[in-house]
G-protein coupled receptors family 1 profile domain-containing protein
Amino acid sequence: MTEMTPTTLWPQNNRTGCKFDSQSGAVTVYIISQFICLFGLLGNSIVLWFLRLFIRKNPIIPYIFSLALADAAYLLCCLVIAWCLPILILFKVELSSYSTGLYLLTVISVERCLGALCPFWYRFRRPEWVSSAVSIGLWSLAILQSGLSIFFLWERSVNRKIDKAINAFNLLICTPVMILSSLTLFAKVKCCSHPQNQPGHLHMTILLTVFFFVLCAVPLSVMTLFREYVNGFPGIFYLLASVNSSINPAIYFLVGCHRERWFREPLLLILQRALKEEKDSKRYVQLQLMLDSRLGPATFTTSESLHYW
């Protein structure tokens, strides 16, 4: 681990502290990253505040809520670490928050891909409790990983092996699955982009979220995995990681806001629109009739099912 500087923003040799160099570029990156973390923490807090009201009304909401919580935890760790508190455990909490966000995005991408490829199963067969259970399981996995790393914190060789295994799992397994699922979803959306069968806001929100994660967070993950062969970490990688954890609320706003009514709609309405999937009514009715023919009349109406919220 390296000393905390605007150039590296990473602990080294188990030492922490603030030794800021005089390079204007490094100081600029440091200041920008701090402002990004503050605004990102505010944005994710607003998202958490609104989503707490609807966490049981939409199968995607538990994932988005957990993702906002993981991003907020990551940004909070970045802010605390930047102010030179000598707590090495914070770096493990930061890694845990990053891993949780990656796992959640992977699951979201896979689920939406399955929903696009197998709409009948996803709409009618998927249990309602799956989202909450999976979110809890992913948090537990990330906490277990960081717990093992903290337990062996003072055994340097073991600690490095654990961190390397976690980073390898994140980069070589979860990231390719997330990218492949997102590309499949994108291809499906493009193929079904008929005027009468528009993809809806939710797919656009997810694709943009994954795109910025790959663009901003994956480079830092690559550098972390191969840090034994790198002499120091450019501060720009940590700046990009901060952007990734801060940009999701902005994505929700841009996707959910009507262009002709900028800043004139309630934030709750914008968030609802960004996370709502607009379904093709004809296709939905066909699936409903197919289900009725197999299992009998459904216990809910089409008008009720068309609304997630």
Notes: The chain has a mean pLDDT of 77. The radius of gyration is 21 Å. Residues 284-309 form one domain.
